[in-house]
Amino acid sequence: MAKLLKRLVEILEEEKAFDRTGEEPVVRFVQPEELQKELSIELSEEPSSENEIETAIRKTVRYSVKTFSPHFHNQLFAGTDDYGLAGSWLTDALSSSQYTYEVGPVFTLMEREVIEKSLELIGYPSMPDGDGILCPGGSLSNMYGMVMARYKAVPEVKTKGLAGLPQLVCFTSEGGHYSILKGAHWLGLGTENVYKVKCDELGRMRPDDLKAEIERARKQGHLPFFVNATCGTTVLGAFDPLPEIAAVCREENLWLHVDACLGGTLQLSRKYRDRLKGIELSNSVAWNPHKMLGAPFQCSLFLVKGKNALHEANCAGARYLFQQDKHYDVSWDTGDKSVQCGRKVDGAKFWLMWKARGTKGLRKSVDVAMFAVEYFYERIKTRPGFRLVLPQFEGCNICFWYVPPSMRGQSETQEWWEKLYKMTAKIKERMMIDGTLMIGYSPLSYKNLGNFFRMVVTCQPPPTKASMDYAIDKIEELAADL
Ligand SMILES: *Cc1c(COP(=O)(O)O)cnc(C)c1O
């Protein structure tokens, strides 16, 4: 076993998987049909030789996207913190679940500490008045928020189901994440019962429209139970005005969940935590340290106020796991707070990285990342060809178009815009083929916008002025003859 793992590390090094100089390609893009030929992907009756396995590992590394590259800005996550990765490997090496203290003693303590510190970070009461759990991703963390809110509003739903209840409805902004829609489907509410609240020109939820939508729902005889506000919307990176939204929720007696999957990390920064002002007024929060902060995938926290609330809403009391007559304090068995049975240990990697860096170190990495975003913004603001989607920068992502030289100085008709939207995809294609840069693009239907680039900067690898300059220069180079 150890020999195999040592060999794996060697291959990762030989293939420069962790290269942070930016000199290696961020991707070696090959079309699926070609890739199939390149790798011997089929599984067979006979075992493979040691050599074949080594080749398979090597090619996996070679043809995978190098998220550790300073030129990867394609998603909301990127490379990981070194200690985080070590923690992740440690977890896997000890192959365990997280539901009972019995089977995960150390991991149980680590998860609790991570939750305690995270509660403190967002200004929630500490345990047992605050609580939390690590979830398989932010979509699930958001669904936990919906489940908790619904249980609070109509506790009988747990045993009796939805039949006989008025139509339950929830609210999120136009810019909110689609996981709320999925949650509405999975929870039997239906996607039509997610009311989309309008955003202002910076992509932030408008509290006046929230109020109006709640009123509209009540007039229709529906039962509002959940408001989702977002800190760091997925595309524009906007932060909803939490104090105003919290005031509406208080007046209307509604559960306020904050989807801070992306923006929650800014809470670590003294300079930027202002963007999440009011988060402590909410009932629950979702935060993905696996995004900006660089905890290894997956690491998502659901945090909630209310003693025992998480347990009461989710427990099913399975006696084969959660025997009440164990020889230790069974309140350390956290599994019945979860919707899952077996639960991957996601707290340990975050714990190890937090332990190694200290809150101070994590804070610094956030400030370094935000310095880079601001620098990128300042540089493209006035640079010929670059065009910002939002009138000012108040979020965490930067959305922009790049107008190639051949399209400048023309009248900006509908056709011109359509062409620009196609250009965005074309420039992206060139990035991928060239393998030198990855920045994602997106349309935004509620604003009637076609494709634009979404520049994302994360803490790992730490971005620099040079990596920001590189991205700007590269886009200009790739689009020069378009
Ligand atoms: C990424 C994201 C999610 C979903 O998180 P996953 O871990 O990808 O499921 C939810 N909300 C926002 C705002 C996000 O950016």
From TrEMBL:
GO MF annotation list: carboxy-lyase activity; pyridoxal phosphate binding
Lyase as UniProt keyword: yes
SUPFAM superfamilies referenced in this protein's UniProt entry, alphabetically: PLP-dependent transferases
Obligatory cofactor(s): pyridoxal 5'-phosphate
Domain of life (superkingdom): Eukaryota
Family per record: Belongs to the group II decarboxylase family.
Name of the protein described by the UniProt record: Glutamate decarboxylase 1
Species annotation: Ceratina calcarata
Gene that this polypeptide is encoded by: LOC108630857
